[in-house]
Write a structure and sequence with these properties.
This protein is an alpha/beta fold. It is built from ten helices and five strands. It has a five-stranded parallel sheet with strand order 2-1-3-4-5, sandwiched between helices. Strand 4, helix 4 and strand 5 form a beta-alpha-beta unit.
Length: 210
Amino acid sequence: MLQVLLVDDHELIRAGLKQVLQAGLGKMVVGEAANATDAMTLLQKQNWNIAITDITLPGRSGLDLLVEFKNLRPEMPVLVLSVLSEDEIATRVLKAGAAGFVHKETSGEELVKAVRKVLAGGKYVSPSLAEKLAMQIGNPQTDDPHKKLSDREYLVMTMLASGKTLTQISKILSLSIKTISTYRSRILQKMHMGNNAELTRYALKHGLVQ
């Protein structure tokens, strides 16, 4: 029987994912975790066929968790979910070892298709992203400022650009406001910007937030 590990800090989203997967793939064993710590505990207790994780988790991010998953169980495919723009975050998660990336607005049918593909040993990205990646081959890449950011800095940048306050971000990531403020300073410095408004304009122009 298929064994699936779901990692998302929202119980309703986990329930929805579970329902969609069971409807499309049949009976399965499902493990649920709301954060990276719980996910690692479950990972060490059982041999899962696949893990499906969100990017934005409290504490350690889904990107941090992805690296830990691949270190401990390199053979287990990991499918990443996010509401962040696939243009940038999908490339980051694929480079980090993910078997695929699915946007949270994707249909249930497409999610099942993605799971089937990675379980068969393939990689999954949306048709639109696959086309964009194909067009980039052989073309010189511009040195966009946001590409200089670390994965955690990128996540904080997208939240700031979406209008979230330092307090809200600190609660989401389970980090102190001082730490988030430090991230903000680094982001503004690396991107040569002076305030959140400039970040927002930049992120909207480059399709990094919606």
